[in-house]
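Hi U.,

Before I forget, here's the chain from the pilot set. I'm dumping it here mostly so it's searchable later in email.
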Amino acid sequence: MKKIAIFASGSGTNAENIARYFEGNENLNIECIFSNKADAYVLERAKKINIPTYVFSREEFYNSNIIVDRLKDLGIDLIVLAGFLWLIPENLIKNFTIINIHPALLPKYGGKGMYGARVHQAVVDNREKESGITIHYVNEKYDEGQIIFQAKCPVDENDSPDDVARKVHKLEYKYFPEVIDHLLFGKN
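Structure:
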């Protein structure tokens, strides 16, 4: 059985979508949802779908092996970042395969501070003709890991950042679980 851990800082729509996709799959278990925010709504979502949670501090994350040890104890095969905003420390990168989803077509609109509504606003401000998602491996820099998958959507002349966000979310919900499935089980 493959085991994944999801790291999230926000509302957790992608985390819940991934959990629902793999519901009933006897070959995969979401062992835990980790969050750096005790008030993140992802923790409520996790409770509703019976996934254990773990909230950690900045100190635990950056200045100890507490998280690495906990993940090793759980036997984690893959860490999935689903709206997790902190830079991943070297001790996690060295010990685990980690993937992230970014709400733009990297290398455009990536890097520190580029997430969520900020990305969609930049896409609109720059009059891009398309946007999309990038799923990539995580390395020691924001949004610079090897790209695994990209999907595109058109950006119309009159689209607001919220319009772009809706289009991008549709791509996230469709493709993120499928890419995880493919990475772990070789399914298309």
